[in-house]
Amino acid sequence: MTIHNIIDRRTNKFNVTIEAILEPSSHDNYAKGATQFKENDNDLMVQSITHTTINNVIRYSAQEYKYPVTLFMYDIGTTGRGDIRTLVDNGGRIEAILYED
Q: Tens digit of pLDDT for each residue in 38-60?
């Protein structure tokens, strides 16, 4: 599946190097006026990807997710991730699972 929504929270919209958070689009079904996406058992994973590019995140989400996802884009170091699964972009290969406290 591909990215169905993008929330761009970058201060510099021309820098393609980002920190990204991917989450199931159905997480936002509660929001007023939101497109309603079907929820399923796989809709639990939220992932953060550090020091990546927009292109790499789009390719990764198309390969890894089987349901619609929302991409949140942030400037490097500004996601305030907390306790979610974090991945690292290693030259175009997204890998190295880290766990944040």
A: 887 666 677 888 888 999 999 88
Q: For residue 67, give every residue at least 6 positions away whose Cβ sits within 8 Å of its Cβ, in sequence order, or none.
A: 1, 24, 25, 26, 37, 38, 40, 42, 43
Whole-angstrom distance, CA of residue 44 vs CA of residue 80 = 19
Sign for the pseudo-dihedral over CA of 49, 8, 61, 58? negative
Q: Specify the DSSP class assigned to residue 86.
A: E
Nearest one of 38, 34, 3 to 21, comparing CA atoms = 3
Helix (H, G, I), strand (E, B) or coil at 92: coil
What's this model's pTM, rounded to 2 decimal places?
0.78
User: 56 — phi, psi (to 5°)?
Assistant: -65, -40
